[in-house]
Amino acid sequence: MKHLLALILLCSMLSSVAHASVSTSSSMNRDYNCFKSKRDDTMSLVCSMYFEANAEGKEGAILTGLVVKNRANDSSGEFKNIDTYSDAVWQKGKTGVPYFSWTQRERAIIPKEKLGEYLLVSLLIDIGYYDDLLPEDVKWYHRKGLQRKWTKRLFVVKRHKNHVFFSSKRPRPKKEDGLTIGETASIVHAVVNPIGYIVSVLPNKD
Fold it and tell me: How confident is the model over 32-56, as a mean pLDDT?
């Protein structure tokens, strides 16, 4: 059902963004200059995913793209003044340094053969198809091995290849599939000594 809904929404969106994004990329017949995308939400997201995680596979691109989306949707925190993907991608910190280092490059060109793949991913991110991969409060990440002062106030939520993803909220522990050791022991107790098990679970009269 999720796949069908995504396909329907994607088809409707493709028709609306075809003139904006595809024409912006010269009908995707040539390499794309990302410095032309500063006011284009879709292409800003595409460019950010490519330059932040092009060596980390599809999942790496999706995760970095979801961080951009989470920042754009932030209504009360550090990114409350960010309203769009392009705002999030090209935002600068208090010191004037961009949040995404690739935006400081002299050139940022995406090969034409990669545009279609990343454009599709960006549209699926926009309609919420990948929302279950990363909580909405995950709005930060950096490369593994780097030390950043700002991470001291955050919690690690996910690691993927060369990136570590952070949230301002402590992640809830996930219950593992299957039975715990304690649950297994209780079942064995109930089977081997049912009367003793019943007595053990009865409330104490005291």
Answer: 94
More confident residue, 183 or 78: 78
CA–chain centroid gap for 153, Å, is: 20
Q: What does the buried/exposed string (b/e) look like for 82-112 if buried means 16 or more CB atoms within 10 Å of the residue's CB?
A: bebbbbbbbbeeeeeeebbeebeeeebebee
Find out whether 205 and 107 touch, Cβ atoms under 8 Å: no
Question: Cα(63)–Cα(75) distance, rounded to whole angstroms?
Answer: 20
> Band of the pLDDT at 27, cuts 50, 70, 90?
very low
- A 10 A CB-CB count for 120 gives 13
Nearest to 139 by CA among 127, 152, 155: 155
